[in-house]
Amino acid sequence: MTRYDLNLRFLKANASDLYRTATQEKALYEIEINEVEGQDNCLLKNGNCECFDHSLYSTEEEMRLMFSSVGEDCEALVIFGIGSGKALEYAKRNYRSIKSVIIIEPSLQMFRRFLSRHAFVDVFKTMGKVSVLVNKSEEAVSQYLSGALYEKSDKPYGLVCTASYLSLFSGYYEAVKNYLVKYFRSRTAHTATMHWTKYVWLHNSFKNMNQDSIFYGDVMDYFRGRPAVVISAGPSLNKHLHLLNDLKKKAILVAVGSAMKILDSHGITPHLRAAIDASFNEKIYDDEFFDLSEDIPLLFASQLTEKLLPLYKGRKIFMSLETDMLGNYLNKKMGINIPPVGSGASIANSATWFLSQAGCSHIIFIGQDMCMYDDGLYAEGRSQTSKGDFAEKNIVQMIDIYGNKVQSPRGYLQIKYDFEGRIKSFPNTRYINATEGGIGIDGTEIKPLARVMEEDLENMDFDLNSYIDSQIEKEKYYNLESKKEALLEIRNEIEQLVEINEKVIYKLKKITRKREMGLKTKRLTLLLDEINNKDVARMKEIDFYDSVVLKVLSPVVVALKKKYGESYANNEEKVLAWEKYLNNLTVETLYFIIAVQRKIDGILKIEEDPEEDIVKK
Question: How far is Cα 525 from Cα 59, in angstroms, rounded to an integer?
């Protein structure tokens, strides 16, 4: 039996999708392959581009250069092009921290060549989880990456590509690289925001638990197959205000952020409002906002300011954001398995991902300029913010969809990247940018709103309130009563973590005293190893630690590793740095888990939650 046949047998038993790809699919990208005599190498030709798969002289030097930008602590590696397997072999030898590998091979012919020369079972050895994408379009790869990398977005990652594939599949590679850059830039921004606001988020989350709402998963069927319009507050919204009452008969109008105030001031009632502000914005949430709230459902997330929900008269829909680690863990404990909604730099992003996950047929953007016109950021009906309100370094020169030079606040670019980094994940939804201005969103169709209304939409009946009421009649409330049992389970896990961390603090104090008394470095190392191998290992066995604590504190972990993980002149310095790292991380962990425990105790009346607590600091 040939090597190729053995590999097919292995794939058939262990990776059926890859087996079908290798045996049944037609190549999306036809290339010409000519073998190099005496080497595991070949000459590749794609159109006018011709190059060798690997260097004819030193593949080791080629690999060294190829991996030069990948850090030693890399945990998630994306390899563009399996080629002759050289990159995979190099990664195995030189990167011990890798826990997952994604291999993207555009060429079905090169994949078959690999199967004829190498034992595919070796691909799966010593590299953690390995995923192989063969003969897939750019869109399919991007869609896969958004899901596969979600859990790894706070981990060190690397992307490598052979010089030959940079030439042969340059457009494909650039598309994947740009997607990854935008995705991780977006996720890093959200993680950093979560870090700096985690105690405010925690405070608001528990205050909002006292409010009755319906879970977003219980209303998704209402949106499935229907068109929706995400209305933002950019200056181009002025062009469309006169169309909105007619548009309301053709699509679900979702007003987000400042657009809620603008629609109120023009007497326009959307089908749905959406808000996630952690602080109370009086420019939006005024008396008129609450007076008009009875017939407009509100889509909100856990971090929403505690002041808003008690005053809101309308129905309330709670959505779990992917960055709400505690809320998602609570849902897991409650037996809720619906994926969280994608977060973003703006409520416009999160509302869009809610509508996308719900299965809307069209999502139409209006007022999504993300730049200033006539020195203003907003449409009429909301107090303006002008260029003078931003430091010069926070203003970026951009080109709008008409080729005009415009200025964008740097933070608004993150909104754009969030859209572009995730739109491909929903291939069944048609995204139309009908803003008629602004800096545009890659992956959307640009079309005037009047034409969209005429060509793409038709009159429909919309009654979201009645649908929500029908779900409430089925007792589908998402409130404190439904969460009590899960909260008690979480509290029990926290008690275990508190006990372990307090022991670690005690042990570290003893280690400090022994170090100051002159205990040898080798002995100190053994004591620190004991903490890592016993106490930290025990914590990792507790689901709350891995699912919530480490994710919420990931920016702290990264900062501490950067501060204390540098190279040192001697072992004494290295041990001292390790000791400080463990001490700082343990204190941060205790600080956070005790804050959560206090909140649970307060809301369940186990003991009073002190108002002047961690949240206020």
Answer: 39
pTM of the model: 0.71
Please spell the DSSP secondary structure of 293-313, one letter per residue.
-TTS-EEE-TTS-TTTGGG--
Q: How many CB atoms are closer than 10 A to CB 179?
A: 23
- Domain 199-473 fold: sialyltransferase cstii, chain A (3.90.1480)
Give the helix/strand (H/E) hosting 238: none
Instruction: Classify residue 513 as exposed, middle or buried by CB count within 10 Å of its CB (0-12, 13-18, 19+).
Output: exposed
Give the distance, in angstroms, between the CA of residue 598 and the centroid of all CA atoms in the same chain.
28
Dig out the tokens for 167 from the structure: 């030439």
What fold is seen in the domain 3-194? Rossmann fold (3.40.50)
Each residue's pLDDT tens digit, 152-198: 555 667 888 877 887 788 778 777 777 666 666 655 555 555 555 67
Per-domain residue ranges of the chain: 3-194, 199-473, 483-616
50 half-sphere exposure, CB direction, 13 A CA radius: 5
What is the DSSP code string of 28-73? SS--EEEEPTTSS-EEEEETTEEEESS-SS-HHHHHHHHTTTS-TT
Query: How far apart (Å, rounded) are the C-alpha atoms in residues 337 and 328?
Result: 9
Q: For residue 132, which phi and psi values (nearest 5 degrees)? A: -125, 120
Residue 72: exposed, middle, or buried by beta-carbon count in 10 A (0-12, 13-18, 19+)? exposed
pLDDT digits (tens, 9 = 90+) for 429-464: 999 999 999 999 988 999 999 999 999 999 999 999
Closest CA to 539 of 503, 506, 563: 503
CA distances 408 to 274, 283, 411, Å, are: 23, 21, 8
